[in-house]
Structure of Xylanolytic transcriptional activator regulatory domain-containing protein:
Amino acid sequence: MEKHARDSDLSTEGEEPPAKRRKRTPTFLSSREVGLMRSMPGHKISTFVGSSSGVHFIRSVYSALRAHPDTTVPNSTSGSNIVPGEDDHLLEASPNVPRQLWKSHDISTDGNPLLTFQNLLDWSRSYFAHWHPTYPFLHAPAILTFFETLAQRGDTRDATNSEYDIVILKSIMSISLADRRQSVTEGEEPYPAEIVFQSYDEAVQSVQHAISQPVSMQSLQAALGVQLFLVSMLRFNAASRLGGLIIRMALQMGLHRCPQRYPSFSLAQKELRHRVFFSLYCIDRFICQSTGLPLSLRDDDTDVCYLSHERHAGGNPSPGQRSFHSCSTVADRLLQDTRLRLLEFLSRHCRIRGEIMELKHKCIQHTRRETDQSTVITSQLSKLANDIGEFVDFDDVEPRSLSSYHKSILDIMYHEAVISLNRPIIASKKSGASYDAALQQCITSARFIITALHNAIKPASAGSQRSFSLLWPSFTWAVWMSSFVLFHAAATKHVSIAMVSRFADRSLGVLEHLARRGSVWPEACGAAIRDLQAQLTLNVSGKSTESHAAVREPSSPSPYNMTYPHSTQMPNATHLSSDASPHVVARSLNQVTGHPHGTYRQEGLTACDTGDGSVANLNVQFNSLNSSAPPVDDSSQVGSGRGLEAWNGDEQDEFSGFDIPFWLGQDQYSGMVSEWS
């Protein structure tokens, strides 16, 4: 032993000690996204968009699709920093003057509208067919009773009408009127102006008394109705602020506690409290994910049971002690109403999305190591999909409890969750088996989402109608994010450019249908997709013409190293910035095609003059916004200005420019970067 030790000492004598190994970014931090803190030009305020909205991935894709180095590309602007639904960024020309929501043929301004019971039923039919099954926070028989009373009185301004009844009425009718814009039916009778909201300001102000008045179930239902209207029109910032009031009202009413625990509630009260809670829970989870904000209602603060697994029947048993076979009378009653199983499926989806947000998008100080949590979430998603499939297989009651429209919503939500779970991995600079697996899962889900939505609006045969209208608010985000996933896959040569072009055209068709509702965001997303097409064309065509330049071969053979189809190339694409605002891109298209600034209609997209800002108006607004914006350091974008090669380097801080200084403070952030390096 001593001889061996001496030999070892002699063999290493005179050699320098090995260099200190460089600390690497922890694995659980490298596969996560971060949010973005922004300053709005012209305003002395800052806004924050969280990473679960997808803003980090969007900026990464824009960086990856930048043109080759000898092409001049402007610095980052607001186009790559905004996600669908951020209505705070829709700058109004006259912010103090509320804009009208409806066109002249949508509503009737006749001072004496004919409010018959049948008319009220017809006008509200879309709401009760599409929205009430998913968010049943209203008591439908009570609404029908109010319709009868209103038809007898004939005037919404009758002093005997409850203030909150009128708010609920306007919410139902406003949502139904917006739904009708996406239908193919023509010649419909206009809605009386008295039964719809005339502006978003009117909608929000209609529930302001709920702040100072004692909380009640009716006031909470009215606030939920207004919030759902805002969500349906993709006004997520306003809906989020109103959601803060709604959550506090619900907590004060004790809706976060299972009603089965309290015998003082009647059967009808228990049922309604159950429905209202899970409705506001699902709406809040959707808003938090879309805006990237922390969860307003955490799962560990609630104990309301699902219909199929009631834990509080007959006393207070421990969790898991009772099954749904031993539920109390009201639970049995709810379970027998299979229409409410849709609410349970949506709630389980939203719970899983919340777990994904907590795992992938938590503040760095409180981030947990992923270990097997991603596998647990994947198994939960698979189990939920299997439970839905089993329910559909045995749903032989006519009419079916789950319509094809609502079944499609559940399918889309499943694939949205798959993308949200795996997107942080593909947004990182890493490569390997985990990256490849995550990317392939995202590609599969993105293809499914775009295909399913496109098939839904495509007539089955000539002369036939489409399967159903796309009314669900997350469809805009889903098709937008799916398109970015495919563009990312094309940039990394995992799919062909031709395939991405085909799916981009389908996405534009879906966004055209969604734009008919009146929200500007589908058109903005369509402009962003066209911008990415132009950048992908520029990258591929530019590299193919540089025969004298050295081309670095990929590490593995790829069948997708091909040029972009000439039929889809855009004129003067070199003048379009990958980071430009979607509305600025639309304005650029006006110039290169010779159309007047305010009259150009994008191919496949129709501008909706809805009062909240048409594409033409927003072009001017975003142009002024961008011109007044201070220059943004290119280092704030991952791999900015370096093409795809920047993704392979680890010399830059991948969190630069995002929200870590906001969460930790500059001193802590500096120490963390030094420690990693």
About this structure: The chain has a mean pLDDT of 72.
